[in-house]
Specification:
Blueprint (H helix, E strand, L loop, with lengths): L10 H16 L6 E2 L12 E7 L4 H11 L4 E5 L1 H6 L1 H9 L3 E4 L12 H19 L5 E2 L8 H9 L3 E3 L14 H11 L5 E5 L4 H17 L11
Parallel strand pairs: 1-6, 2-3, 2-7, 3-4, 5-6
The chain binds zinc ion (ZN).
Length: about 230
């Protein structure tokens, strides 16, 4: 991130940005985790992922934007939010996107006892599978915070931990869409997994997408759904 932004950031935001970098650096070391999808240098793919939904205001914006750009995304949903918005969960799968697990109440696995964390992710998976009628095999712990217990839990259930290598920081209110879009274009590598957000950052994220995807498309990129594990 540009250092000139630092003085304006609150400590919480600095922590979130640090969290956004950790998975890129440490993710490749986590057994069973991915930070990138399949790469094909002739027709480079960028895999979009959207965290923290569903959201009454944000999710429709996201679905419109993805349709506009002929792009697909994996939506890592919070189970408690999915229970409140079953119609939005259906809208996501109806549009050809995939639902995956972001846990139950957006709690950090680092702050839960291992058994509590396992139960939370089990419950989230059950809720999302009931809501979609489909198996939910991809999981992204909130903040990308992985624990040895979660790695074991994922391996036992043949689940895949999906992290990312591109997170432009749409959750920082002071970052304009043009900056987010530049960051996406600058960091994208064939097979990159990009993390953006539903909820309050959705307007900013979608505006960034409207700027970045046409540029990438013109350079030959496509935006397919991250292949299932
Ligand atoms: Zn999240």
């Amino acid at each position: 991130m540009p250092t000139f932004l630092l003085p304006s950031l609150r400590p919480l935001t600095v922590q979130r940005l640090r969290d956004s970098l950790l998975p890129r650096v440490l993710g490749p070391l986590v057994p069973g985790a991915v930070v990138r999808g399949p790469a094909d240098a002739r027709a480079p793919a960028l895999y979009l992922t959207v965290d923290d939904g569903p959201d009454a205001d944000g999710t429709p914006r996201w679905l419109d934007a993805l349709a506009r750009h002929d792009a697909a995304a994996v939506f890592f949903l919070s189970a408690d939010r999915a229970e409140r918005h079953p119609d939005l969960v259906h809208a996501i799968t109806e549009a050809g996107h995939r639902v995956a697990s972001h846990g139950d109440q957006h709690r950090s696995a680092w702050r839960m006892r291992p058994r509590t964390a396992r139960r939370a992710f089990d419950r989230a998976e059950r809720v999302l599978e009931e809501a979609t009628g489909q198996p939910v095999r991809d999981v992204r712990p909130p903040y990308g915070r992985v624990t040895p217990g979660l790695v074991r839990w994922a391996a036992q259930g043949h689940r895949r931990i999906v992290l990312w290598d591109v997170m432009p920081g749409d959750f920082v209110a002071s970052r304009p869409p043009a900056v987010l879009a530049d960051e996406m274009v600058r960091l994208a590598r064939p097979g990159s997994i990009v993390t953006l957000h539903d909820g309050p950052p959705a307007r900013r994220a979608v505006a960034a997408l409207d700027l970045a995807l046409p540029r990438l498309r013109a350079a030959g990129w496509r935006f397919p759904l991250l292949p299932a594990a």
